[in-house]
Amino acid sequence: MAGRAPERPPNVTLRRWAREQARLRAGVVAEDTELWQQDSSLTGLERVGGLDLSYPKGDGSRACASLVVLSFPALEVLYEDCRMVAVSTPYVPGFLAFREVPFLVEAVQRLEQEKPELKPQVLLVDGNGLLHPRGFGVACHLGVLTDLPCIGVAKNLLQVDGLVRDELHREQVHSLQRGGDTFPLTGASGTVLGMVLRSCNKSSKPLYVSVGHRVCLETAVRLVTSCCRYRIPEPIRQADIRSREYIRKQLCSPLEAVSSGPASRKEEAEQDD
User: Fold this and answer.
1) CA 98 to chain centre
2) Contact 270, 155 (CB under 8 A)
3) What is the pLDDT of residues 117-152, one digit of tens each?
4) How far apart, in whole angstroms, are the C-alpha atoms of residue 30 and residue 18?
5) What is the pLDDT of residues 214-259, one digit of tens each?
6) pLDDT, greater one: 262 or 192
7) DSSP 237-272
8) pLDDT digit string (tens) for 147-184?
9) Which of 208, 205, 179 is nearest to 196 (CA)?
10) Could you give the angle at which helices 11-25 and 138-146 cross, rounded to 10 degrees?
11) What angle do CA 195, 198, 202 make, to 5 degrees?
């Protein structure tokens, strides 16, 4: 029997979460900090991590947290960890990290303890970083708590600071003709919050890349592009595939899994945190 999704928390909890985001945001480093980031070919980068949560269909009370580590640039899976977890925090737009990041941090910590030689040099996560109502999305949250370079990769535009999916935005997306083409997401404040990326020639649907921690936007886009065989970068894609498969095996049903992220919970929101 499917469990009930947690109920929306009271406003006092949301205010506390917002204060926590503001406190942690002070620790975000929005620039390159690693030697491999200084090389246009990313020489020295050998391991890229991808993280995802998938939920059994119709059940918001449990999920599969997945961490994979891929070699770079070959993009071969070196490590995977899938665990079923009990989800007690509801999904609230703008606060996805409080629902999912604790499980992702635990996965990274297990890897560091069990296979320290496979520790990723950078993490890719399905969601946003600085592209967020309070400038502190799931990629920032995860990056600060793990102190690893982290990049947010979202499938949908989070409409903040005047950014909207209007006709002009659609025209700009249509202008992306080949893999690697981009245009900046500049908010009404004049701040560049992220980059719209056509990640490969095979798909015209864009990705929304934003800085999480210890990486600049230019490097983030270059790395995400280098990790894309298909639209979704391979580390995140593999984490999603393996978490879905783990749920199917656990439930003995071939169709009972949905991806993490608000994009897959359309009854809740059409945006990524």
Assistant:
1) 14
2) no
3) 999 999 999 999 999 999 999 999 999 999 999 999
4) 20
5) 999 999 999 999 999 999 999 999 999 999 999 999 886 544 455 5
6) 192
7) HHHHHHHHHHHHHHHT-TT--EESSGGG-TTT-SS-
8) 999 999 999 999 999 999 999 999 999 999 999 999 99
9) 208
10) 60
11) 165
Q: 217 with 192: CB under 8 angstroms? A: yes
Q: Is the peptide bond before 73 cis (omega within 30 degrees of 0)?
A: yes
Radius of gyration in angstroms for the set of CA atoms belonging to the chain, rounded to a whole number: 18
E strands within the chain? Answer: 47-55, 62-71, 77-86, 122-126, 150-154, 182-186, 192-197, 207-213, 258-259
Other C-beta atoms within 10 Å of 177: how many?
A: 10
Question: CA-CA distance, 164 to 123, in Å (whole number)?
Answer: 27
Cα–Cα distance for residue pair 55/85, rounded to 1 Å: 10
Query: 250-257: long-range contacts at Cβ-Cβ below 8 A with a sequence spacing of 24 or more?
Result: 250/64, 250/84, 251/56, 255/57, 256/56, 256/57, 257/54, 257/55, 257/56, 257/57, 257/64
Indicate the Cα dihedral angle 67, 71, 77, 79, nearest 10°: -50
Q: Which residue has the tokens 């409409």?
A: 159
Check the CA dihedral 7-13-14-17 and report its sign. Answer: negative
Does residue 207 surpass a pLDDT of 50? yes
Q: How far apart are CA 165 and CA 270, in angstroms?
A: 12
Name the pTM for this structure.
0.91
The SS3 assignment for 50 reads strand
Express each pLDDT in 59-78 by its tens digit: 889 999 999 999 999 999 99
